[in-house]
Amino acid sequence: MLLPSFRYFAVMVKQFLFVILAVLVFSCKKPPERNCADFKTGKFSFTAVVNGEEKETTFHRTLETEVDYFEGKRDTSSVRWINDCEYVLKNMHPKNKSEEKSIHIKILTTTDSSYTFEYGAIGDNRKFKGTAYKIAD
């Protein structure tokens, strides 16, 4: 009588392992694409909501600097790359205390013509997301 119950147990264990393996295989999805090197330099546009109104910023980034154009004003920041997908911006000519804070930017995903990123002031726990679009030179 011991032998049939052992076979039943063995079959159940095999079925359980098969189900677990199947779940693991089908639940693994491809990580988001990140071709960050394509976006280290170039001209970009970014739209953000400021006080309930959409505002567009354009910027030109080289490996060392980023020049932003917002509402007719120009701002220059130094760029320090941490790795291929993360960098820190530091305003080179801050006009107030808030502009003195460096901004950490992390590219989350990329497409052929845009990248989605997360950003926030260093030391501030709040993070924001945006999408920048590459502009043809």
Task: Outline the structure in words.
By secondary structure, the protein is α+β, with helices and mostly antiparallel strands. It is about 20% helix and about 45% strand. The protein has two helices and eight strands, in the order αβββββαβββ. It has helices at about 1-25, 95-100, and strands spanning about 40-50, 55-60, 65-70, 75-85, 85-90, 105-110, 115-120, 130-135. The protein has an eight-stranded antiparallel beta barrel. A hairpin with a 2-residue loop joins strand 1 and strand 2. The longest helix has 26 residues, at about 1-25. The model has no long low-confidence stretch (mean pLDDT about 85).
Specify the structural class. Answer: alpha+beta
| Distance between the first and last residues' Cα | 81 Å
Q: In total, how many beta strands?
A: 8
**Overall average pLDDT:** 87
The helix fraction, in percent, is: 10-25%
The SSE string, one letter per element, is HEEEEEHEEE
Rg calculated over all Cα atoms: 24 Å
- Give the overall shape: elongated
What composes the largest sheet? 8 strands, antiparallel, barrel
Query: How many distinct helices?
Result: 2
List keywords for this structure.
47% strand, 137 residues, alpha+beta, 2 helices
Concise synopsis of the structure shown:
Helix content is 22%, strand content 47%. The chain has helices at residues 2-27, 97-100, and strands at residues 42-50, 53-61, 65-70, 73-83, 86-91, 103-110, 114-121, 128-135. Strands 1-2-3-4-5-6-7-8 form an 8-stranded antiparallel barrel.
